[in-house]
Amino acid sequence: MVQIRLTNSKTRRKEDFHPIDAGDVRMYLCGPTVYDRAHLGNARPVIVFDILNRLLRHVYGADAVTYIRNFTDVDDKINATAQARRQAGAQGSLEELIRQRTDETIGWYHQDMDALGALRPAIRGQVGDKAEPRATEYIPQMVAMIQDLVARGHAYAAQGHVLFDVRSYAEYGALSGRSVDDMIAGARVEVAPFKRDPMDFVLWKPSPDDLPGWDSPWGRGRPGWHIECSAMSQELLGASFDIHGGGIDLQFPHHENEIAQSCCANPHDDFARFWLHNEMLQVEGRKMSKSLGNFFTVRDLLDRGVPGEVIRFVFLQTHYRKPMDWTERKATDAETILRRWRGLVAGIEPAPSPAPAVLAALADDLNTAGAIAALHELAGQGDGPALLASARLMGLLSDELGGWIAAGPDLAPLARRMEALRLDARASKDFAAVDALKSALLDAGVEVRMSAAGIELVPGPDFDESKLPQ
Ligand SMILES: [Zn+2]
What we know:
Layout: E1 5-8, E2 13-16, E3 25-29, H1 43-60, E4 65-69, H2 76-87, H3 94-115, E5 122-123, E6 126-127, H4 139-151, E7 155-158, E8 161-164, H5 180-186, E9 201-206, E10 221-223, H6 225-237, E11 240-247, H7 251-265, E12 271-278, E13 281-283, E14 286-287, H8 298-303, H9 308-316, E15 324-326, H10 328-345, H11 356-363, H12 368-380, H13 384-393, H14 403-407, H15 412-428, H16 432-443, E16 446-451, E17 454-459
Parallel strand pairs: 3-4, 3-11, 11-12, 13-15
Antiparallel strand pairs: 1-2, 5-6, 7-8, 8-9, 9-10, 13-14, 16-17
């Protein structure tokens, strides 16, 4: 069996991964708050942990892996979008409008992440709602966990709130490597009169009558964000499980707080043994932000005609622990590579297993860049079956993601005509016919790429099939 090694944020070391139960390897990933389309940065953890999920399924068996990813469906931003819709004249109660919004957003999320080739979360291979829990369906478990924390002296109720007492947990700060005093000095903490310590965080808070709320021993209210993940992971994976993932931006305070809650509620369990964090995404060398005008969603890219497979490939070229830069240039290059590879494997059956070099790279802390280098080697050797089997381990070259090739116009006859003209021109030293065809193609929005390997015609953003030369 291949030995997987992963960098554990908890120990800050690369360690051999041994599951608690090889018959049910259990992983939790913090999912989205469902109020709007996923932006490109949101896709990074999904793709990173999809690779890990696929690797675990390959090594242990698809029905021996449980992968849970939640939806946070109670949040001020969700309430705000529903309130805005009602003010704009939408029919229905606020509750109904909230449900419409969260259902709609979950639908978009599925569409967009499916388009990137990410497998849906699954419980021992079974896809379903339970593998993608909605926070609002686990309120009783959250209330029970909060009650338990109060009973154990780790939380206290004050003015309708329940707060976690960070000074009651000596390990608080261990994951992010800072002490409570450093946090107070370095962070903009919310000071509230009912907090014993400025770093104490909310487990439960009151909810006004016109917003979603649930009855609890502390009055009508709603859970804090952090308790959602602690309660849902415990319910679905147990108090000790194998891997917890998320973006590095969640390490503090979200993951620190999850650890505090879960480890104080279950002092004899481990909570998550491995913590994995992916680095952030930039666009053309700059932080993606609305103010810089370089903010876009996964759907924006797909609608612009960038295939999901191309987006996935670009993401996989960067190791998950390094900041990743999305550039148009990378997308264009990825498209060229994938077109070539898809040509190479057309009509070919995959080898029975992926190439050892690809598997070894992925098992070495998800070295996707190294795995892609190995794929290039297989392509260079013309080994279509091995290329196909290995690429599919990474969710590439699947039939599901191949639609963009088939849907594109068949430019192969024109490429062959141009190739023939080019050969003639080399002999006659008269390039007029080649140049004429090339400029006609450019007018139709087709990019002409000439290399020693041949001519490749790629429809660009301005492609107009009706202008193609006959
Ligand atoms: Zn979480």
